Known about the structure:
The chain is mainly α. It folds into 2 domains: about 1-65, Homeodomain-like (Arc Repressor Mutant, subunit A, Orthogonal Bundle), CATH 1.10.10.60; about 65-210, Tetracycline Repressor, domain 2 (Orthogonal Bundle). Helices cover about 75% and strands about 0% of the residues. The chain has helices at about 5-35, 45-50, 55-60, 65-90, 95-115, 115-125, 130-155, 165-185, 190-210. The chain is elongated. The N and C termini lie far apart (about 60 Å).
Amino acid sequence: xxxxxxxxxxxxxxxxxxxxxxxxxxxxxxxxxxxxxxxxxxxxxxxxxxxxxxxxxxxxxxxxxxxxxxxxxxxxxxxxxxxxxxxxxxxxxxxxxxxxxxxxxxxxxxxxxxxxxxxxxxxxxxxxxxxxxxxxxxxxxxxxxxxxxxxxxxxxxxxxxxxxxxxxxxxxxxxxxxxxxxxxxxxxxxxxxxxxxxxxxxxxxxxxxxx
Length: 211
């Protein structure tokens, strides 16, 4: 006879899988609706729910309002971006010239896949308190990882002892975020590979004083 614990875990796992599938379905539907140029702020909940093929009541059980919807969709859309960056900052930097560009390629690729949603996130976070608080906390969590690595590198004597860690982490984080947003937000002649190499070089210059 299966144990109660095993049955409970199995049910929870199945429930998590269903929720993940549902959220991915909503993300695809939402980005599909925005593909014709309709701003996120102009999309009605009913339209998003219909495109997601769920009842409005079901939709509201998962997302009480459009702020919470955008927050959850942003979590999904930025996971690969942050994973790529965080993994690089935690990894060995013996082959940093190559690995940092690979990390930037992954971030840029992820941004391209979810460009419309992430541009909406940037816009809405400027005036929506909940979305702004979410995005600030997410970026701060990433910056903490950067600070920890810079401190470790400084302690090991691999970077300048005079480097001011917190301001440097802010510069590095903002540089990558704003550069990608600027290139994708305009008709830029810069291609993804050029951007990845430029960002990789800039990160190494700021961090280690070399490229």
